[in-house]
Write a structure and sequence with these properties.
Chain B: Keywords: Amino-acid transport, Cell membrane, Membrane, Transmembrane, Transmembrane helix, Transport. Chain B: Its main location: membrane. Chain B: It is a multi-pass membrane protein. The complex is a heterodimer. By secondary structure, chain A is an alpha/beta fold. Chain A has eleven helices and ten strands. In chain A, a hairpin with a 2-residue loop joins strand 9 and strand 10 (about 215-220). In chain A, helix 3 (about 100-105) runs parallel beside helix 6. The longest helix of chain A has 16 residues, at about 170-185. The termini of chain A are far apart. Chain B is mainly α. Chain B contains eleven helices and two strands; from the N terminus they run ααααββααααααα. Chain B is globular, with a radius of gyration of 19 Å. The termini of chain B are far apart. The chains are: A alpha/beta, B mainly alpha. The interface of A and B includes residues 81 and 155 of A.
Chain lengths: ~260, ~300
């Protein structure tokens, strides 16, 4: 179980981004974390994977527990060794390295089971095996996303944190990502899925959290969230007829306009 | 023709010293985005360590020992003076490396004394006949050693776990962190490698003529080498170093006859002249990555 308790994160000593977030990711499950841009989803993931330091972020309150043990304040490498791996938003592959070199960097902490994990990843992504000697910068967006996920799997994680894996992918590829998440979970990896594509995320998740301006505002089983029209309308920005229409966005837009004029 | 070839071999020999130094610059630059001006100090420290060790251990054992010693020194310097500055502007860190250079050189000067110290190499200035050419043995030794070291280095970056981690961190530090690569380890390793390479370069710079308190100036010629090759290209550093060496050697041999109006010792400034030319045509060097800035 990966658990976040009452977490507060501040950037640059001044910007309070998470205000008392609590969340549980039970082992073996898929948990979806939804929310608009700027809600703090990525910050929460950074707190879980130890990458806050890079962005001058700091946990000022609360704790992160991995199987009951506090792990906040550990360095990213230590967290990866304990089985928490993150796939960052925007793929972030090492474009100058070949596909296989990218995967090998992913296995940096798991050198002993590297060959075995490589087989597993190639099993999941036969395409990557075909392209193993290609320079990864020349892969297509969908292939790069697969590579990013595969690279994280090379460490043999128990908990996989996926940050917007469907971002910028065609609908058919989004479906592939969805199936992939299910398959990874079936093979025994717990998944925390951060998504803007709420329908996709909730369709595979067991449980869903909705974040807004640094707080969890909704926390329900995924099926319930998916069925609730109000939630769709107000938190996920999906109108009943599927049109994107959010009151908050309208309000935000108005406010910004006033600010600029 | 024979003269040109002999001059070429001398250029390649000297060039391999520049290449080793340039590799150190590039490795540190790629890992930390900082040009380490401490390279001249590490180079001279290596040469002096060899000159002191060679008497007891023999030259061939003294060189790897000195390389390890200087690598350790570089490791310590990185830990004490550079690591606390992570995240600060690279300009600040570069200035710190200048300070490190001065401090280390002052200390090392104490071990040199006022005279020229011999590094105890077995070659001296003796010649060997290769295909009808009379070339100094030390040029051959330098070139071969550099070839071996460069191959080892490239294999390291290509096939080993730490080499791959260093390349990954050079490309995208945060993502490398997320894979469990310790960026501190990458910094330390880059400094240690640069120190070790500089030590070997220093030893070679001292063969034949010995080292004195001004030998470190040779290391400055590695700067044109990295500019010519491209700051972030390992292959470029090697080729840049060799190119600078060859140009310098050819000018040294022929400028007096062909262009006496350039005065004497024009060869000394040719590395910088070449650097200026390359900067005018390809500011990012022959093999460097052009920096794309979007506005």
């Amino acid at each position: 179980m990966l658990e976040v308790r009452n977490l507060e994160v501040v950037y640059d000593d001044v910007m309070l981004v998470l205000r008392g977030v609590s969340l549980r990711v039970p082992a073996g499950s898929i948990v979806a974390l939804l929310g608009a841009n700027g809600a703090g989803k990525t910050t929460l993931l950074r707190a879980l994977s130890g990458l806050l330091d890079v962005h001058d972020g700091e946990i000022t309150k609360g704790s992160v527990l991995l199987d009951g043990e506090p792990v906040h304040g550990l360095r990213p490498a230590q967290l990866v060794r304990r089985g928490v791996s993150q796939v960052m938003e925007g793929r972030r592959i090492f474009a100058e390295l070949t596909v296989e070199e990218n995967l090998k960097v992913g296995a940096h902490t798991a050198a002993r089971s590297s060959a075995e994990n490589l087989e597993r990843v190639y099993g999941l992504f036969p395409l990557l095996k075909e392209r193993r000697r290609n320079v990864s910068g020349y892969l297509s967006g969908g292939e790069q996303q697969m590579l990013a996920v595969g690279r994280a799997l090379m460490a043999g994680p128990r908990y996989l944190l996926l940050d917007e894996p469907s971002l910028g992918l065609a609908p058919s590829l989004v479906r592939q990502v969805r199936d992939l998440v299910v398959e990874i979970n079936r093979q025994g990896t717990t998944v925390l899925l951060v998504e803007q594509n709420a329908t996709m995320a909730l369709s595979v998740a067991d449980h869903g959290y909705v974040m807004e301006t640094g707080k969890i505002v909704m926390d329900r089983p995924a099926a319930e969230l998916l069925a609730d029209e109000d939630i769709k309308e107000f938190y996920l920005g999906l109108g009943a007829e599927g049109a994107v229409k959010s009151f908050r966005e309208v309000k935000h837009y108005r406010r910004r306009k006033r600010w600029l004029s | 023709m024979k003269g040109v070839l002999e001059s070429l071999v001398r250029g390649l020999g000297n060039g391999s010293v520049y290449a080793l130094l340039a590799l150190g610059f590039v490795i540190v630059y790629k890992a930390t985005r900082v040009i380490s001006f401490a390279q001249p100090a590490f180079m001279i420290a290596g040469a002096v360590a060899v000159s002191h060790l060679a008497g007891t251990t023999g030259f061939y054992l003294a060189v790897p020992l000195a390389a390890l010693l200087v690598a350790g020194l570089a490791l310590g310097v990185e830990r004490v003076a550079i690591r606390p500055m992570v995240g600060r502007p690279v300009f600040v860190v570069a200035i710190i490396t200048l300070g490190i250079d001065v401090v280390v050189r002052v200390v090392v000067n104490g071990f040199i004394g006022l005279d020229v110290r011999q590094v105890g190499d077995p070659w001296g200035l003796s010649l060997v006949e290769v295909g009808g050419l009379a070339v100094q043995q030390r040029w051959i030794a330098m070139l071969l050693t550099t070839a071996v070291l460069v191959s080892l280095l490239f294999a390291f970056f290509r096939y080993t776990r730490y080499g791959l981690a260093m390349r990954a961190a050079a490309f995208d530090q945060e993502t490398a962190l997320a894979q469990g690569v310790s960026v501190g380890m990458v910094f330390a390793l880059s400094w240690a490698l640069a120190g070790g390479l500089a030590a070997i370069a220093g030893t070679f710079a001292g063969t034949g003529q010995g080292v004195d308190q001004l030998t470190w100036i040779i290391a400055l010629k590695a700067l044109p080498a990295i500019i010519v090759g491209g700051l972030d290209s390992l292959g470029g550093a090697v080729i840049g170093g060799l190119a600078i060496g060859v140009v310098e050697s050819l000018v040294q041999s022929y400028q007096g006859d062909l262009a006496p109006w350039l005065g004497q010792n024009f060869a000394v400034v040719t590395p910088y002249a070449v650097m200026l030319l390359v900067l005018l045509v390809r500011p990012y060097g022959l093999f460097g990555t052009p920096e794309v800035e979007r506005v």
